[in-house]
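User: Structure tokens for both sequences below?

Assistant:
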Amino acid sequence: MISLGILDRRSTVSLHEQLAHGLRAAVLAGRLRGGEAVPSTRALAADLGVARGTVVAAYEILAGEGYLVSRPGGATVVAEVTAHSPSPRARADTGTVEEPPPVDLRPGRPGTTGLADAGWRSAWRRATAGDPDADVPDTAGAQVLREEIARYLGRARGLDVAASEVVVTAGTSDAMLLALLAMSPRGGRTTLRVGIENPGYPRVHRILRRLGIEAVPVPVRLGAGLDLDAVERQRDLDAFIVTPHHHYPLGSRLDAEARARLLAWADREDVVVIEDDYDSEFPHGRAPLPPLHMIDPARVVLIGSLSKTLTPAVRCGWLVATGEVGERMRAARGDLDLPVSLVQQHALALYLAEGSLARHTARRRREYRHRRRLLLEAFSGVPGVDLAATDGGLHAVALLPGRGEDAERAIVADLAERGIRVAPLASYIWEGAGSSLPAGIVFGYAAPSTVVLVEAIEGMLAVLRAHVGIGGPTGPMSESPPG
């Protein structure tokens, strides 16, 4: 029997999270060593007097964090978590110094450990078992995948979507490109005029420049979100690109009143709203609001993808549009052809249909919430640094009020010297538009193992403390019980 502490059944913290914490602490303390097999889920459940599902959920969290390794057909064993060191090491055989591998905390990267489970492997095996199609029957995407996406959006986002309204895309960027190429300038103009959030998604900036589209930046304020007064002053726009559920990167969202106000303006001005619904799968501690598309499906083009739930490497997403706007999107897709392999589409359709995506997302949701708690605890004792954008998604923003771009560049450079890669907040601001934002860094917390993440956050805190002129402890972050 492993010494895991006492499970408190009266606690507001779920039993599986308490169990995961106890096992994690046992690994970090050396009571469970690398390569050592942990008890089977059935045996440990019997020892602790809990349901087997509780132990399964705890093991899934720890496997996703990198503390446990599941071997198909074999035992689950403890990972060699002490092998990584944040500082250079001398090799005994040569005397040379080994630098630790860099830790890439740039946002947009989900965790992929454990993705290739039985459901994933089965879906791909069956999708590749037969002869491939001789041609692409529908450039909007495989019918079976569009049907599963429609069902998924009904379950996950409450949308009543028909498969005929879904267009398969190679991720968010392809969907954004398709939506913009399907539109025509109004009023005799030769150039599209598109409103964008400032700061906002850098790839949108690059797409607009590449297409020669006139971008109209609209401010997003810290703590206040999209400046709707500035939106309502806009005239003669063809489209407006918005992230209403979780603004990227500042993390604000549009409440019900703000959504109604935005759509009323779009209706008056006859503007197509392009809604990027990213991060809706991971609302940490707050109920997700329905998409804008639900309120006005004829005017709002909904864009979503599997990039955050699975990985951007899958290159698969969707665009949902109805009415005349939808017809233009499907016509543009037909002209450009379908960029996603039909074999992949059939595999993903099986993966969705059998509930594998839902189970994977639930596991990731538990894992990311734990990591978010670690961040909140770590940054809570750092005066002069504000942590933002943590109410959802897979990234956070560390802000330094009162400091500008020079401090920001210095922080990013100092972190790079430590082997920690982050994104400067200034890189999200439209060039020439200006901004009142303070210095800040944007970083993800999903891709590395929890062990590596904790070490990287310790390094980040040391750099931030140095730049705000604060001493204090820079020792290891505590793995306190989640709560």
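Moving on to the next sequence.
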Amino acid sequence: MADDFPSLAELAAEEEELQFTGFTNDDAWDLGSALVAAARRDGAPVAVAVVRNGHRLFSAALPGATPDNDTWIERKMRVVHRFGHGSLYVRQASVERGTTFEAEFGLDPLRYAAHGGAFPVSVRSVGPVGAVAVSGLPQLADHRVVVAAVRAHLGR
């Protein structure tokens, strides 16, 4: 079924595949701009952010996005920064261990959200250096939009 969540193995394969050789301010702009263009094309009411080493390099809110979307982005990005994996990956890891993210880690849900839509910006042979996130769609759709944009940016 199309709405089934991907397995942890599938999410790990995405993260392994979608690594950068470097990540500049221009890369952040291009990636964020591509996400905005896709959202405009689809009429998606989303917010978008790209961060490297704690520095927000790109941020946008399309028509229909709200300040709550910015809060969701921050909460999802905290998961990426803390665990070094995408927010959906972290969620799915808990699910496959027979629990929930909230029960397993006991982190403040107002600060951390293991919901799809934030993906690590990883540089090969360096590791995670930032994150790209979308909020405004159901979590699986947020995840898929980000992954598609990263894949297109990397030419894969």
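User: Anything stand out in the second?

Assistant: The chain has one domain: 18-153.
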